[in-house]
Amino acid sequence: MGGTGTLELIVRHPGLFGWVVMGVPAVNLPALPNARRLSAIIWGPMDKPVRCAEGGTVWQALNSHTYLQTHQVALPMMFINHGRKDTWMRWKHNPGFYRLLQRQGQPFVAYWDNGPHSTGARTKRVLPALRKIVRPARSEAFLSFANGSANDEPGNGDVTDGDLVGAINLYYVSAEARETARRFRAEYGHDRDGATDGGTTDLIPQRLKAFPHKPGTVAAYRILDRGRQVKRGTVTADRHGRYRIRSAPADRRYTLELTPAGR
Known about the structure:
Blueprint: H1 2-12, E1 19-23, H2 35-42, H3 58-61, H4 64-70, E2 77-83, H5 94-104, E3 108-113, H6 120-130, E4 142-146, E5 166-168, E6 172-174, E7 178-179, E8 184-190, E9 200-206, E10 218-225, E11 228-236, E12 245-249, E13 254-260
Parallel strand pairs: 1-2, 2-3
Antiparallel strand pairs: 3-5, 4-9, 6-8, 7-8, 8-13, 9-12, 10-11, 10-13
C-alpha cells in the first residue's frame, strides 16, 4: 500500500514532508471493487463500519478526494503516476482528483500512460523531466503550477477518453524561491526537451513563512521578462494562505515577484 498509504498519511500530516512520490495511489479506496473483500479482513463488513475519532466511518476517511473537499489541508509537493489499464486502482477516479488538486492549488505533478498497475516503466520515462523540478525541503517556500495550457487532458474517467498518455504540470519548472517578509521571488518557465512551449499557467507560491500570507491578505505581483515587466496586478491569499496568479505567461523563462500591497 505504498502509494495509497502515502496519500492517506499526507492528507492528515502534511507538514511532515517536503515532497513525496506516489505510485498509483487509490484516491477513493472504498470505491474499488476489492474494497469490500478487504474490509471484512481488516475492519469488518462495510455495512457495519468502524467509526473514526475524527468523525465518520473508516470508509469515509479512506476517500481522500472527499477528505480534501471537507478539510483544510495544504499538501506537500506530490509526484503522482497512474495507469489507465490498472485493474486494481481503476483509472476512473483519477481525473476528478487531479482537477480537485488544481482547483485547490495543491502542488503536484501527475503522469499517466495506457499501462497497468506496475509503475516501473512510467517512472523511467519521466525521470529526466522530474529531475528538473524543485524538490523542496519542508522548511522552504517554493513555486508550483496549475491549469497550464500545455497540460494534457486526462478525460472524464473512461479509459478511452482523453489523452492515453499525458501529464499535468510535468514540464513547468522553477528555480529555488527566495522569500523575505517584503518579497517572494522565483524564476519559472516551461522546458519540454529544451523547448519553451508552455503557453500560460497559474502560479502558486507555496509554504510561505516570512512573507505575509494570512487568508484575505492582498499582495502585489509583477512578472518580469529579463527585467522588463510584462504583467502586474494584485492577488488575495485564499483560506489556505495561498496566492494564485492566474494565466501567467510561460512560453519562455520569466520571474515572478510578489510584494505586500501598498509598499
